[in-house]
Amino acid sequence: MPGPSSIPAKRPAAPDAAEAAWVADEDRFVLQQARKKAAIRVKSGRAAPIDWLVVTLALTDPDRDSLDDDLEGKEFEAADPEGVFEGLSEKDLSELEKAIEGYVVLEKGRREAEYWDMMRTICRDRRKHSQSVQTSARGVTSVKADLDKLLGPKDLEGLEKLERQIKTKLSSNEPIDTDYWEHLLSSLLVCKARAKLRKVSQSIKALRIGGLRRKQVAEADALKVRLQARAQSAVMANGDDHISGQDQDSTDRHDLDPEPLLRLRPEDEQLAILTPAEFAKQFETDRETIKRHGLLPNHKRSSTSTALEPASKRQRTDDPATSAATQPTTFDRELARGLADNEEILTSGVEVVTKSLPRWLPTSRPRKPQSFNRLLLGYDWNKYNQTHYTTDAPPPKVVQGYRFNIFYPDLPPGAPTPTYRIEREDGRRRGEVRAEAGEEDMCTIRFVGGEPYLDVAWRIVDREWDFSAKRERGFRSSFDKGVLQVWFLFKRVYYRK
To answer: How far is CA 61 from CA 58, 168, 207, 370, in A?
Structure first.
């Protein structure tokens, strides 16, 4: 059984004046609630096409008050309302026309009634075009092209003038082709509705641009005040407000110099390969679509505190004291390699106590090293899985290894090399199995870097490592250029018949 319709409906006529007034009040309440629900659905990202048309009308109303609370604080995308109809199926267009009819019946204002009448005209034309795409003959297509060529270049005033001329000709007693002129009139009304909607779109863009400009001016003024305050505090702290040209040039070069892309990201590998001609054609198509719809994207900015900092200081690190000499390069290159199909990022660590912390606490500020760790997954084709699963219906993936990359760029000269160790709870020894059937024993791998870095640790599956020198097994334990790498896979278990 279908659910209740969201299309506002008018009540039947009342027999007396008192009840008629009550029904009119009820219709106004229904219309107001329908508008508010449309605005809420748009704000929550679940809008239907009719909701965008309702919000578009509200944004162009200079005296609107019913939707102010729902539209306030939300930056909508302002687009040509006609673009709402693009991409809709015949069923969607039918439902949209029914929803528009509901607003046509309920709206009483001249401006609102004219708006919804335009929408209904365009929706009906879209439905007619959708129904005739597969059945239209070559002659009909040619006539439509001729009419579009005739009516397309005319503005709203020219269309209204031509409409008066056609109506005069149809009402006269002259011997004319009535079918042609009536068809021309119906096509003209559609073009007229589109021309009016273009004016609606222009008014929306004007309002949005004006609002964005006012907001940008306010943000610029606030930023100017903060920069002046920061410059004054820097002068007081350093005793000199002069920035050397060399430092400024270095900062500018860092801002504009991108990091090298060593490997395609996994999502980029799935993109279609286009020839230059195909790419140029697609680019032009997308550009024309945007120009036709007049899109104004949402105004999104990064936080002010981040925007005020130079790019050299905006690193992916929780510690602002970390050096920018080695860490950003090695860390970003590791990130650039992306993830393979059998890899996942290992993020959740465990809190451990750094035992050597009291000895060097007075001389250094402790901080956690940055890390980028991977979890290697795969299928374990043991005897049970070979019996109960196939390659088309594989068993659940299991952990087959780890790849730890811990970054220590600020170790002092002559400091001991960072290392790692395995810690097991409750006196359990290596190779001892205490987990229940179907579960894995777990242990903690701790990384010790020394001053000024705290110890970090992660929980991992406790199975025997494969230390073989085979290239495909990939065991690695090394410290080079401030990066400790510990890569390992678990030994494979083979079952003999």
So the answer is: 5, 35, 11, 53
Domain that holds residue 345: 316-489
- 208 with 320, same domain? no
Both 199 and 337 in a single domain? Answer: no
In a domain, 224, yes or no: no
Domain boundary (212, 237, 262) is at: 212
Are 337 and 483 in a shared domain?
Answer: yes
Q: What DSSP letter does each residue of 348-376 carry, written as one string? A: --B----TTHHHHTTTS--BPPEE-EEEE
Structural domain ending residue among the three candidates 158, 190, 212: 212
3-class DSSP state of 249: helix
pTM: 0.40
Of the candidates 310, 302, 420, 303, the one whose C-alpha atom is nearest the C-alpha of residue 371 is 420
Are 180 and 324 found together in one domain? no
Sign of the dihedral defined by the CA atoms of residues 268, 270, 276, 279, in that order: negative
For the chain, what is the domain count? 2
Kindly give the confidence (pLDDT) of every residue in the chain, 497 residues in length, as a single tens digit, with 9 standing for 90 and above.
Answer: 455 555 665 555 545 677 777 777 777 788 888 888 888 888 777 778 888 888 878 777 666 554 455 555 455 555 567 677 777 788 888 888 888 888 888 887 788 888 888 888 888 888 877 766 555 544 455 556 666 667 766 777 777 777 787 777 777 777 777 777 777 787 778 777 777 777 777 776 777 777 778 888 888 888 888 888 887 777 776 655 454 555 555 454 555 566 666 666 666 766 778 888 888 888 887 777 666 554 444 444 444 333 334 333 444 444 434 444 444 456 666 666 667 777 888 877 888 888 877 666 666 778 889 888 888 888 888 888 888 888 888 888 888 999 999 999 888 888 889 999 999 888 888 878 877 776 788 899 999 988 888 899 999 999 888 887 666 667 888 998 889 999 999 887 665 55
